[in-house]
């Protein structure tokens, strides 16, 4: 399986671009002897996109237990925030876990 997490990176409603990107990935799929290409765009449930992909003969996996990416994601705006401000914005248990990772020398997790 060729898996494209949070992609394909383009306008997910532009079905012609999607088809073009998939065609380009076809050589990679064949070279790696993969039988399927799966992409998992970061979008909300949208009946129009669902219908667009169904109409264009894409197989849509919608059962929760078959999803690879987490159901919910959080995005944090870190622009113009210091390390201290960012850490202070987290719950105490989250701060503890981050500091624990530093103590265990996992410094590449959040900050360098």
Description:
The protein has 2 domains: 2-66, no CATH class; 74-112, no CATH class. The protein is built from 4 helices and 2 strands; from the N terminus they run E-H-E-H-H-H. It has helices spanning 15-31, 47-55, 83-88, 92-103, and strands spanning 2-5, 37-40. A two-stranded parallel ribbon has the order 1-2. Strand 1, helix 1 (15-31) and strand 2 (37-40) form a beta-alpha-beta unit.
Compile the SSE list and pairings.
Blueprint: E1 2-5, H1 15-31, E2 37-40, H2 47-55, H3 83-88, H4 92-103
Parallel strand pairs: 1-2
Entry keywords:
112 residues
Mass-distribution shape: elongated
Span from first to last CA? Answer: 34 Å
- The unreliable regions are none
| Helical run tally | 4
Arrangement of strands in the largest sheet: 1-2
Strand residues, percent: 5-15%
**Total number of β-strand segments?**
2
What is the SS-derived class?
mainly alpha
Q: How do the helices and strands follow one another from N- to C-terminus?
A: EHEHHH
- Radius of gyration, Cα only, in angstroms? 19 Å
Name the average pLDDT.
81
């Amino acid at each position: 399986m060729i898996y494209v997490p949070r992609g394909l990176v383009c306008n997910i409603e532009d079905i012609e671009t999607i088809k073009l990107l998939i065609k380009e990935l076809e050589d990679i799929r064949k070279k790696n002897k993969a039988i399927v290409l799966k992409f998992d765009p970061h979008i909300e449930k949208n009946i129009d996109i669902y219908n667009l992909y169904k109409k264009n003969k894409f197989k849509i996996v919608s059962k929760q237990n078959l999803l690879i990416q987490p159901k919910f994601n959080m995005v944090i705006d870190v622009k113009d925030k210091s390390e201290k401000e960012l850490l202070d914005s987290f719950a105490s248990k989250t701060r503890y876990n981050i500091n624990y990772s530093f103590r265990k020398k996992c410094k590449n997790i959040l900050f360098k």
